[in-house]
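Onboarding guide, step 5: your first structure request.
Type a short instruction followed by the sequence, for example:

Predict the 3D structure of this protein.
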Amino acid sequence: MKKIRIFIIFIIFALLASGTLACQPAPVDQVPAQSLTVFAAASMTESFGELATLFEASHPNVNVILNFAGSNTLRAQIENGAPANVFASANTKEMDALVTSELVAADAPQLFLHNRLVIITPTTNPANLASFDNLARSDLKLIFAAEEVPVGKYTRQMLANAGTEFSEKVLANIVSNESDVKQVVAKIQLGEADAGIVYTSDAVAAPELVVIEIPAVFNVLASYPIAPLTDAPLAAEFVNFVLSPEGQAILEIWGFTPIN
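The system replies with structure tokens like these:
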């Protein structure tokens, strides 16, 4: 019996020495990494890039994956099964479509910022544009976003506000309709047209371009909603961060008008 006890004690000491019976917490760096995929309108490229960096800094082991495009394109991607956790749209139409298709809960979308339109020209302003009225000149080449893209639709609403005759003259000057607002900016930067119409936030992100204001009486207010697409805690946390004072302050720096 004594020999059995000695043998058992020997086994226990051997297990303790090997660490088999030790109660050690898992190292922090072994916590599984998580990803958060955010689909956001192209006009939020710079601002959401900064927000994602700050969110990752406060959430170790979280990787924020950003997908930017026209809101209509993002909505179609989500409807076709693209994996996304958060959707931030440049208009309510695309968000409402996802609510209708039950891909977003009816009570989930929240408005989180506003934006307005401005005219941009290349740095040298080759057409010598000086005012909004100049857009109706017949010698211009203009680049807009396509009508199905939120900024393209806002642009045409704004022109309609300025009158049918004026709108028709301006639209006759279009030489290209782009798939998102950043494509408009890129082509104006390359000097492929005399002017384009983009959001204020896009002009802030491209300070080398000349900016011409659009009269407030004609301009439109773009409303941006955001919503989590899944029940994942990270999705709700990211949305809350965007709506927080810190998130809203960053959006304001990039030329948006915060909701709060």
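Each response can be followed by summary notes, for example: The first strand starts at residue 34 and ends at 41.
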